Amino acid sequence: MENKPKSFPPQHFEQPAREGEMTPEPEIIRDSYKGADKLKDKVALITGGDSGIGRAVAVHFAREGADVAIVYLEEDKDAQKTKELVEKEGRKCLVIAGDVGDEAFAQKAVQQTVDQFGKLDVLVNNAGEQHVQKDIRDISAEQLQRTFSTNIFGMFYFVKAALDHLKEGSTIVNTTSVTAYHGNKVLVDYSATKGAILAFTRSLAKMLAEKKIRVNGVAPGPIWTPLIPGTFPEEKVKSFGSNTPLKRAGQPSEVAPAYVYLASEDSAYTVGEIVHVNGGEMVAT
């Protein structure tokens, strides 16, 4: 852990930022992470799976024995890199480009996954976007609609499409955020969607528990992903994560095992819960 960077070179990229442009590139999986067939022969669909946390989840799932489909917007190079990393683990990877905020696309992506692999066992709703605005009056209707469409409406669409294929023992994992608990004064619309995801996760968990489909979530804190230099100015990026008790940002490799836990039988008695991976930022749950 001592080798994790405590600061980053100043950098900023236009969204959507690409992982290969980042310095340093995020750590996706530790060499010491040993798979134990926790997801052997499962099929997982991961939105926002081309980079960052989504890429790390895809690779960890593959190391645990799952085939994966990843959904992404337009970052073709990043998506192909994720595919290569999954295939390096000896598993198959389907890449699907499109807008998660489009319900017709969500239905198509789920069907493509089932057509390719024959089933669907795990849905990870991870796609998200954020845009800094210091004054709520600067949040346009277009931005507000876009943020909600990507971050929360897309989750509804993918769950609705997936439920025709999920069965007893299947799992859904949603990505919320520490901002759902703390808020963020320059990410008001983003934080609002993450609060919505929290309530969505708990409510959906109650709805699907009788079907023996478990729903849980992960609330990452400051994690070094392309969203960070794609959102914040250079000086903010330089000190990103330094205000946590651990005085550093986390890496995708440090978040993805939480998704493995929630997707696998290790969490068989865990329903409607949120796993907090945030470097010590205590929150009221």
From TrEMBL:
Leader peptide range in chain numbering: none
Organism superkingdom: Bacteria
Compositional bias ranges of the Basic and acidic residues kind: 15-27
Region span, Disordered: 1-27
InterPro entries the record matches: NAD(P)-bd_dom_sf, Sc_DH/Rdtase_CS, SDR_fam
An MF annotation (GO) of this entry: oxidoreductase activity, acting on CH-OH group of donors
Keywords, ordered alphabetically: Oxidoreductase
Pfam families: adh_short_C2
Family in the record: Belongs to the short-chain dehydrogenases/reductases (SDR) family.
NCBIfam families: PRK06701.1, PRK07231.1
Name this polypeptide is given: NAD(P)-dependent dehydrogenase, short-chain alcohol dehydrogenase family
UniProt organism field: Pontibacter ummariensis
